[in-house]
Fold KDPG and KHG aldolase.
Amino acid sequence: MARFNKIQVLSAMQATGMVPVFYSNDVEIAKKVIEACYKGGVRVFEFTNRGDYAHEIFGELNKWCVSHCPEMILGAGTVIDAPTAMLYMQLGANFIVGPNFNPEVCAVCNRRLVPYTPGCGSVSEISDAQAMGCDVTKVFPAGNVGGPSFVKNVLGPLRWSNIMVTGAVAPDENNLSEWIKAGVFCVGMGSQLFPNERILASDWQYITDKCAETLGYIVKARSK
């Protein structure tokens, strides 16, 4: 069962403005990455379902977060069907993210009041997802469907939308400023926050510093 309710999850996404996205088949590396992000100010983290036994790793991480990163809201990403969503929710996922929009996932998440953020690439998909109860929709792949201008144009007719973007989002001031000015609810970021060479070198301080720097850019962009 989720430790954080729907309002807490959505509020944290909006407040911080960033959701790191990460996967490793090594639970100890994943713990170090989550802890480094936590120290850098991150409070919402997406662990992706991208490898064999990923759900087992997620279950260990979620239990570990209770004592080591108690305010971290851990969710599951790359969830494309309802059975997988139910599996992760049974392991305590606080939110579910997918690269696609699947109404069957909406149903199982809504039943438990767990936020479901599906990947959408058109106004119709975004609107259909909202009609099924998705409070936040993910524009994916954001760089391929039009970038910040796509978000800005969607918010014209669908001004109530809460849009998360992943893909073509970088932890630098100019890039983040463009997305924030376009009106995004939050951004998702993966490999650019966690360069492989830094992971191999166990340079956890780099990740902490990069997260803090990135969150600072978001705050600055929002204040303009």
In short: The chain has one domain: 6-223.
